C-alpha cells in the first residue's frame, strides 16, 4: 500500500487524470502512491483506472479517469514525483 493507503469508496472529485504512456518510465511511483488510480500493466507501463476499469484502450488523453475526492492529494503527489513527468491532471471545475 502506498504512502496514503487506498480506498475504493467515496464521491468523485473535480479532477480527471491520464498518463502519457510515451513518457512513462515504468518506475511505479504512481502505483505506490495510489493503487486505486494507477496500475502498471504487463507491458511495464503505467495506466489509470476508474473503479475496476483500466483506461488502457486507447490510453493517453482518451483514457481519462475520474479521481475520487479522497484520492486527489495522492494523485497530485504522484504527478509531482513522477520521474517521467507523464501524469496529467485536468479539472472539471
What is shown here, in short?
This protein has 93 residues and is α+β, with helices and mostly antiparallel strands.
Instruction: Kindly report how far apart the N and C termini lie.
Output: 30 Å
Strand fraction: 25-35%
Lateral strand order in the biggest sheet: 5-1-6
Total helical segments:
2
What is the helix content? 10-25%
Q: Which class do the helix and strand fractions yield?
A: alpha+beta
- Structure summary, number of beta strands: 6
Order of helices and strands: EHEEEEHE
**Biggest pleated sheet:** 3 strands, antiparallel
Low-confidence stretches: 1-7
Q: Estimate the mean pLDDT confidence.
A: 90
Q: What layout of secondary structure does this protein have?
A:
Blueprint lengths: L11 E8 L9 H5 L4 E3 L5 E5 L2 E2 L10 E4 L3 H10 L5 E5 L2
Antiparallel strand pairs: 1-5, 1-6, 2-3, 3-4
Amino acid at each position: 500500500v502506498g504512502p496514503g493507503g487506498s480506498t475504493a469508496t467515496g464521491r468523485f472529485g473535480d479532477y480527471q487524470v491520464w498518463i502519457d504512456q510515451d513518457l512513462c518510465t515504468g518506475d511505479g511511483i504512481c502505483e505506490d502512491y495510489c493503487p486505486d488510480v494507477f496500475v502498471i500493466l504487463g507491458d511495464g507501463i503505467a495506466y489509470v483506472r476508474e473503479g475496476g476499469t483500466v483506461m488502457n484502450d486507447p490510453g493517453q488523453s482518451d483514457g481519462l479517469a475520474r479521481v475520487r475526492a479522497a484520492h486527489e492529494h495522492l494523485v497530485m503527489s504522484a504527478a509531482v514525483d513522477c520521474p517521467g513527468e507523464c501524469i496529467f491532471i485536468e479539472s472539471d471545475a
